[in-house]
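Predict the 3D structure for this chain.
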Amino acid sequence: TPAPKDVVAVTVHGSNYKFSPSTITTKLGQTVRVTFVSDSGLHDFVIDEFKGARTQQIQAGKSETIEFVVDKKGSFKYYCSVGQHRAMGMEGTLTVE
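Done. Predicted structure below.
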C-alpha cells in the first residue's frame, strides 16, 4: 500500500559531521516521518521550529523514528545538537512549500 500523500517518510543518516540527505522538501500541513539512523558516533536530529521534531541522542548503529507536522512555510535548519557537531557542519535544510 502506498503511503498517504499527507505523510512524507524520509530516512536521514547521520555520520561524522553530515546528514544524508542534507535537504528535505515538504508541503505545508504534511506530517513528516523521519527515521534517523546514526551511522557513526553519537548524533541526534533537531528542528527547533516544529513540535516533536527532535530525536534522542542515537548511538552508532541505532535509529529512532519521529513524526511532526509542518505548520509553517519556509526553510528550516535541521542539525545535530551533540557537542560542537553543528558548528562542524552537521546541518541540513527542511523546505516547506
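The radius of gyration is 13 Å.
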